[in-house]
């Protein structure tokens, strides 16, 4: 990755580490400038284990019998089993929230029963879809990457980024996605083209990357892409 210590190109951004009134929930406008016409959450790819008996798995139970039943089911489906990979089949969050009776909004990420392990994020498919989407939005272009929590990912800690200082990187879409994968999608990072026609933010412990878009045609790129999206507004709450 090429980089520069000149940070003038990121002064227009909001800091992702929100320090506003404690009484106000974190909203899209706190992360991405509110001058975009459209906003969306880019949900990760998710897979489900066919036939998984969700109602029989209770991870929070302290019963020995229930714990043994949980382990037996997980072993049957290859969860937590050495040498086996669970066979998660592609599904959608819309199907999952219908199954569990939850609202189809960003709260689904925290409300779904992930601990049952009958479904999970499919990391490689998530990365592939994001890579394809970014290349469709801005083909063959270098993009600006600003990592706000840069100290976590530099040579002195996780050794993901080449520089330990606060800098602006110039990257391809492929390089950005590779960085997110190495950072386990947990870095607080902004990505945007030189014309700022769109801006994506991925933030630590966030439910999903959020993108701001300038035009309806860019929204069409999102809706026609393979990934699942949730359309948002600048006032949409993230937690």
Q: What's the gist of this structure?
A:
The chain has helices at 64-76, 93-100, 108-111, 123-137, 150-153, 173-182, 216-224, and strands at 2-4, 38-42, 46-49, 88-91, 119-121, 143-147, 168-171, 189-192, 198-202, 210-213, 229-232. The chain is an alpha+beta fold and 239 residues long.
Describe this structure in words.
The chain has 239 residues and is α+β, with helices and mostly antiparallel strands. It has 2 domains: 2-44 and 123-232, no CATH class; 46-121, no CATH class. The protein is built from 7 helices and 11 strands. The strands form 2 sheets. It has an 8-stranded antiparallel β-sheet. Strands 4-3-5 form a 3-stranded antiparallel β-sheet. β8 and β9 (198-202) form a beta hairpin. The longest helix has 15 residues, at 123-137.
Radius of gyration: 19 Å
Number of structurally distinct domains? 2
Mean pLDDT: 92
Termini separation comes to 33 Å
Order of helices and strands: EEEHEHHEHEHEHEEEHE
Strand content: 15-25%
Strand order of the largest sheet: 1-7-6-8-9-10-2-11
Count the beta strands: 11
| Stretches with pLDDT under 50, minimum 5 residues | none
Largest sheet: 8 strands, antiparallel
- Regarding quaternary structure, what we see is single chain
């Amino acid at each position: 990755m090429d980089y520069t210590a000149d940070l003038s190109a990121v002064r227009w951004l909001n800091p992702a580490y929100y320090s506003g009134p404690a009484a106000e929930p974190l909203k899209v406008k706190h992360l991405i400038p509110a001058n975009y016409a459209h906003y969306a959450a880019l949900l990760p790819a998710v897979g489900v284990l066919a036939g998984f008996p969700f109602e029989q798995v209770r991870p929070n139970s302290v019963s020995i019998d229930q714990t043994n039943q949980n382990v037996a089911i997980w072993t049957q489906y290859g969860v937590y089993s050495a040498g086996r990979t669970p066979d998660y089949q592609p599904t959608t969050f819309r199907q999952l929230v219908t199954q569990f009776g939850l609202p189809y909004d960003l709260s689904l990420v925290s409300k779904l029963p992930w601990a049952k392990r009958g479904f999970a994020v499919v990391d490689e498919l998530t990365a592939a879809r994001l890579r394809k989407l970014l290349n469709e939005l801005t083909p063959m272009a270098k993009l600006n990457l600003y990592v706000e929590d840069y100290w976590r990912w530099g040579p002195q800690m996780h050794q993901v980024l080449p520089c330990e200082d606060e800098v602006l990187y110039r990257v391809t879409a492929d390089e950005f996605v590779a960085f997110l994968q190495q950072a386990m999608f947990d870095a607080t990072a902004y990505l945007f083209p030189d014309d700022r026609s769109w801006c994506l933010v991925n933030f630590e412990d966030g439910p999903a990357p959020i993108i701001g878009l300038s035009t309806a045609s860019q929204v069409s790129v999102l809706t026609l892409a393979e990934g699942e999206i949730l359309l948002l507004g600048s006032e949409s709450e993230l937690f």
